[in-house]
Structures are given as structure tokens and as C-alpha cells.
Design goal:
alpha+beta; 3 domains; 5-stranded antiparallel sheet; 10 strands; elongated
């Protein structure tokens, strides 16, 4: 029966389609149209590597729609559409991780990114409604700013085209880069570095061109028009010899001299690029070791606390004030970010940290096992917050206390000692 059921319901993606029944899939592209791309020449500079590293580290953090208790402490996760977009699937084309990378990359490149809800259960524009459920979200570029609204350019997955739409500011999260003055201002360090790198590329293109840059010294003066015509004819003959030769060989007269000018000119361009690169790393609290993966724990901790966490804070605070109503905030709803401390530790320090967390009753044994990739234990004690050392001490036999002396006997002994002492 299982075999017959399998044969009856079998489906093959290549064989079970009618080639004559073609669906209208819409416009097609040879590349992904909704993918974020660097602008203003940043794709040809070191800013691409820096932005990509920061975006990935921000996306590795966990964003949760949470509910707090009466003491403003993290209590539980709210499993709604917003939390699904932040942790599972943001839209038809992007998972939650890809969506967060898109948010961070677009914000760092453009200076401000619009995070807009696309599919909701209520019309947020024509209806004055307070709360609504978010099903899908996308990032967009703000093309025009209005007092109470913005014009956003976003990708429409219904027809595969990018479109502009006007949205109210209260319905879209507008996240500005915390390092805007360093990376996005016209005279910022990042823009100056991009300009210097463009000049270096232009100089390299010129030096790599097919120009020979020769000066031919003729044995006569060329001040008159007749002599200039003779010199032009002589130059044309040498160019013709070089173009027509297989190996680029030409001959000149014994009285003529050749001066070559295609040597690299000495300038301070490379020194300025090195200075601006180091200055940008310093202002962004980064080091080259962070990019190549050899940074120590102290450097990474400084990088996360001073670079990644300000960006994550900008995202969660803007989403909180735009996607959570006043009623939800009054009911202790919030959006928080979390970072897994186990990802930055070597295996030699994981055991020590796990011992401290379990001994101080911060995490249970099964929570530790899940973090390091092991299956939870079926022992009920593995889910309890307890110190195993203290529990073992409680199982010992109680120590016998010394027998107490009755109060009357102790009083009589004191009186006898007073009589003897006179």
C-alpha cells in the first residue's frame, strides 16, 4: 500500500509538467534584482569589505519581539508576524538573516535605510488603525523626504520591479547610520578615502595604457613651420615602424636621441591612502585583524561594544517606536537584541564558562548542552537551575551537636563556684 501510494502521488519537477501550459512568470533577470548593491563608488574600495563585515556581525545578533515582566526584565517571546520576520522569513526572497544583512548594508552605504512593512492585515494608509499584524517586510531607499512622509524605492516581488511609493513616517522605520559623520558625509573620512582610491585607480589605468611616452630629440630646431612639418613627418614614421613591427622595434638616425617619460612619478598618494585607511579603522573601532579573523578576545569585545551594538540599538529602538503601539509598550512589549557569548570563546574556555554559569544557577545543564551543539539530556535534573556541589553537600548526614546542659544544673554549678571562690 505504501508503494502504491507513493507511485500514485509521485511528482517529478521535470516530467510532471505540461510544456504547452506555460505560466506568465513575469520579467526575468540574469542577476538577482532585489540584492543590495553598493553605490557612489564604494564597491571599488575597502569600504565594501568593512561594510560587509559589520553587516554580517549585526545579522548574527538575535532580534526578538519580547515581553517584559513587572521589573522590566526579559520574560517571554511574542510569536507574532514581526518576530517571524526578524527570525525566520522576512519576505518571499529573503530569510531573516539575509534581511538583516540587507538592512545593515543599505544603512552603511546610503546613510539611512527604510524598513517598511509590505503585507499587513489592515490598511495602514487609508484607515486610522492603531495596531496591525505584519506579515512581510522589505528594505528601501528614501528618495524624497516630506514633513510627515517619505518616498521609498523598494522591490515589488509581485512583478519583479523596483517601484517608488509614498509612506507615512509613523509606519516605516527610518534607521540612520550612527557613524553617518564618518562614513556618509561628503567630507567624511570614508568619502575622502574613496576619492583618493579613485585617483589611484585613474593613475594605474593611465600607466597601464599602451602609451610609450617618448620624446625624440632631433638634430635641428623646430621653431619654423617648415621644421615642425618635418618633425611631425619624422614622428609619424617612427609610430608607423612601431605599429608595423611584430616586436615593437624601430630605428632612428645617429644624430637623434630618445628620452623616455613613462616612469612612475613620485607622489604622496599611497601615503595619504594608508593614513586615511588607518584613520577610518580608528574611527570605526576596527583593526585589520578583525577583517582577517586574527583579532583577540579583547579587541573583538571592544569592536562589538563600540561598533556593532550602537547599530543594533539603532535598529531595535526605531522598530520599537514605529512597529509597537503605545498600548503594546504599556503592556511591557519591546524589541531586544541578544548576542551569543559562546561564539567568541575557544573550546578551552567554554567548559570553564559553563561551570561558572551552572554553578551560579544562571543556566541549566540542558541550556549549556544546546549551546555547544549537543542534544538535551532526558534527566529532569538537567533542566533545573541548581548548583550540583551544594546539592551533594545536602545529601550528607547531619553532624551531631553537643548535648545541651539543663538550665538548673548550670545555675547550681555557678553558685558552687561562687561559694568556693569565697
Amino acid at each position: 500500500m505504501e508503494l502504491m501510494t507513493r507511485v500514485k502521488n509521485a511528482y517529478n519537477a521535470f516530467m510532471n509538467r505540461d510544456p504547452t501550459n506555460r505560466m506568465n512568470y513575469g520579467p526575468g533577470y540574469s542577476y538577482r534584482p532585489d540584492r543590495p548593491r553598493m553605490t557612489r563608488g564604494n564597491d571599488r574600495t575597502i569600504l565594501t569589505a568593512i561594510n560587509n563585515r559589520i553587516a554580517i556581525d549585526v545579522a548574527l545578533m538575535t532580534f526578538q519581539h519580547c515581553k517584559m515582566n513587572d521589573k522590566d526584565q526579559y520574560d517571554d517571546i511574542v510569536n507574532d508576524g514581526l518576530n517571524r520576520c526578524l527570525n525566520l522569513e522576512a519576505n518571499l526572497d529573503q530569510s531573516a538573516f539575509a534581511f538583516k544583512v540587507d538592512m545593515a548594508m543599505s544603512m552603511l552605504d546610503e546613510g539611512c535605510v527604510a524598513v517598511a512593512p509590505i503585507e499587513t492585515d489592515k490598511d495602514t494608509i487609508n484607515q486610522q488603525t492603531g495596531s496591525y499584524e505584519i506579515y512581510t517586510m522589505r528594505t528601501g531607499k528614501v528618495t524624497t523626504w516630506y514633513p510627515d512622509a517619505v518616498r521609498v524605492r523598494m522591490y515589488d516581488d509581485r512583478d519583479g520591479q523596483k517601484k517608488e511609493t509614498v509612506m507615512m513616517k509613523k509606519d516605516v522605520a527610518l534607521v540612520e547610520n550612527p557613524f553617518f559623520s564618518i562614513m556618509n558625509e561628503p567630507n567624511s573620512t570614508a568619502k575622502r578615502l574613496a576619492h583618493k582610491l579613485a585617483l589611484l585607480d585613474r593613475s594605474d589605468d593611465y600607466n597601464a595604457s599602451g602609451n610609450i611616452d617618448l620624446i625624440i630629440q632631433l638634430p635641428y630646431t623646430v621653431k619654423s613651420e617648415r621644421k615642425k612639418a618635418v618633425a611631425d613627418q619624422r614622428r609619424a614614421e617612427i609610430e608607423e615602424q612601431l605599429n608595423g613591427s611584430t616586436y615593437g622595434v624601430a630605428y632612428i638616425d645617429s644624430t637623434e636621441h630618445v628620452i623616455q617619460l613613462n616612469r612612475a612619478l613620485e607622489n604622496n598618494l599611497l601615503k595619504q591612502i594608508d593614513y586615511l585607511t588607518n584613520e577610518l579603522f580608528t574611527q570605526l573601532n576596527m583593526t585589520p585583524e578583525i577583517l582577517n579573523g586574527t583579532a583577540d578576545e579583547r579587541t573583538m569585545q571592544n569592536y562589538y561594544s563600540r561598533t556593532i551594538e550602537p547599530i543594533a540599538t539603532a535598529f531595535v529602538e526605531e522598530m520599537k517606536r514605529k512597529f509597537l503601539t503605545k498600548t503594546a509598550i504599556a503592556q511591557k512589549h519591546t524589541i531586544m537584541y541578544f548576542r551569543d557569548p559562546f561564539k567568541m570563546l575557544p573550546i578551552s574556555q567554554v567548559a570553564e564558562l559553563a561551570d561558572k554559569l551552572t554553578r551560579n544557577e544562571i543556566m541549566s545543564s540542558n541550556e549549556i548542552r544546546t549551546k555547544i551543539g549537543m542534544r538535551p539530556s532526558k534527566d529532569k535534573a538537567a533542566d533545573q537551575l541548581k548548583n550540583s556541589n551544594i546539592s551533594a553537600a545536602k545529601n550528607r548526614l547531619p553532624v551531631a551537636e553537643p548535648a545541651s546542659v539543663p538550665a538548673e544544673e548550670s545555675t547550681n554549678k555557678e553558685k558552687e563556684e561562687q561559694i568556693q571562690n569565697g
